[in-house]
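Aim 2, interim progress: modelling of the erythose-4-phosphate-bound target.
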Amino acid sequence: MELIVDSADLAAIKEIDSLLTISGVTTNPSIVIKSGKYPEQAIGDILAYLRPDQKFFAQVVRTDFEGIMEEARAINALRPENTYAKIPVTREGMRAIKAAKQEGLNVLATGIHSAEQGFLAAMNGADYLAPYVNRMCNYGDGVERVIDLIEMVTVNGLDAKVMGASFHNVEEVHELIRVGIHALTLPPNIVSLMMEHPGTEKAVEEFSANWQAAYGRDHLFG
Ligand code: E4P
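Predicted structure of the complex, ligand included:
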């Protein structure tokens, strides 16, 4: 499974990358705005940091077909490889996904709110599908629908990878890892919630206190 950081906060990206095995970074317009930088700077900083084998996903902002295509080409041209244009699955976006793949561009279909939308984007050749898990839960069981999407892609022999996105709690993530989702893009706070547990901190504090009491020092060998 590919673990992706859903953030344009460079300090957070660097920290998570030092702690865990990270395959890349996703952004969207709201995430870029939140960085407090102009898009050129925010994206430039991330690209300057990522290794060439780590993937980068940036979202188009224009909503008309020609505009989406122009921005999808510009995003793909940012690096020689491993760079993907995120295209929302609107009508114009679906048309653009099909055309972009015919041009050989790397594409992630984003803003997916149903298994059907994801499946159709996969048929258009999208490399990745990003279902918005938490937002899908406003319309039904988002996690179940994403599991359906994984199955639809698999049984139909499509190449697209399902990248779960828009997570607001660890339980949604847990279930999708369990069923073998291909990729997850997670904001830093969800990564921290997955990694840390108060029980672990408590256990380590106990070991340290017991060691100090027994040997009068905080290290293993003298
Ligand atoms: C990632 O690619 C998505 O843009 C992101 O996860 C959306 O998250 P949100 O629903 O919290 O805005």
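Residues 2-215 form a domain with the TIM Barrel fold (CATH 3.20.20.70). Residues 6, 26, 28, 30, 110, 130, 132, 134-135, 165-166, 185 surround erythose-4-phosphate (CB under 6 Å).
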